[in-house]
């Protein structure tokens, strides 16, 4: 058997078994291992020196964690997310997590095999009809992140510290204890942060930081202002 | 006098678009010409809406195709040059005026 060495990640045992059998028997795909979670996938991919890891689109598996750990392997495999339908949200999540491609399932297993071969050749696989909407969504995300970054710049160093601690899960009393200020002062800082960020609640402030990927930048800002 | 920067590609809207399996065809009824686009060129043409900047286009392409900024810029510029040469795309400045 020739062709790329594949690891299949599918948490549902019956689907996994059927997919492996069909890919191997009917399509000649070299499925060297199958797995159902992040740790065993990384281990198997390293053990069989996988060229491609095919990951079923499933909410039970953390795709960002899997992509991060697979990218860290020596001779990192390429990552293809396999879906059962054309789902723009799932495609966006896959690309943002660091996957190299997405197979929509519209062309069945034959389409998946084509995608495996293309991705093993180093191509990025996105269904043609989904590429335009994907690029538009990524550009919208860039704009949201830029707008949020502009709002963050308007915060004082103290307010950034308060926001960072809020993102870490502390309430105003915890923030007060951490910064050695009174709970009333912490509450005032929090109200100013919410007003400057243009959000109505602490939950919205946390979501804003998380959605725009600014948590790391916020921590660096806080480290700098504290040093 | 300030020099305007034309950085917003804008597509001609009076074209007809027909999507096929792995390619799209743009039909210019006025000039009696047709143009075949691959999926990437089609996606870039669609994003030439007069508000999306070249930088935004290049950053999005980098993310999808896992290529460097330089490679993406070269590829996007090549596609835009072909689209412009075919009369399918023009350039506008931030105030919306075309070149």
Describe the protein in words:
By secondary structure, chain A is α/β, with parallel strands linked by helices. Chain A has 2 domains: 5-126, Response regulator (Rossmann fold, 3-Layer(aba) Sandwich), CATH 3.40.50; 139-226, Winged helix-like DNA-binding domain superfamily/Winged helix DNA-binding domain (Arc Repressor Mutant, subunit A, Orthogonal Bundle), CATH 1.10.10.10. In chain A, 62% of the residues lie in helices and 11% in strands. Chain A is built from 11 helices and 5 strands; from the N terminus they run βαβαβαβαβααααααα. Chain A has helices spanning 13-27, 38-48, 63-71, 88-97, 108-120, 128-153, 157-167, 172-179, 183-197, 202-211, 215-226, and strands at 5-9, 30-35, 52-56, 78-82, 101-103. In chain A, strands 2-1-3-4-5 form a 5-stranded parallel β-sheet, with helices on both faces. Chain B has 99 residues and is of the alpha+beta class. Chain B has one domain (7-89): Outer Surface Protein A, domain 3 (Alpha-Beta Complex). Helix content of chain B is 38%, strand content 25%. Chain B has a 3-stranded antiparallel β-sheet. The radius of gyration of chain B is 14 Å and the shape is flat. The model of chain B has no long low-confidence stretch (mean pLDDT 87). Chain A binds chain B through residues 95-96, 100, 124, 126, 128-129, 131-132, 134-136, 138-139, 142-143, and chain B through 19, 21-22, 39-40, 42-44, 46-47, 52, 56-57, 59-61, 63-66.
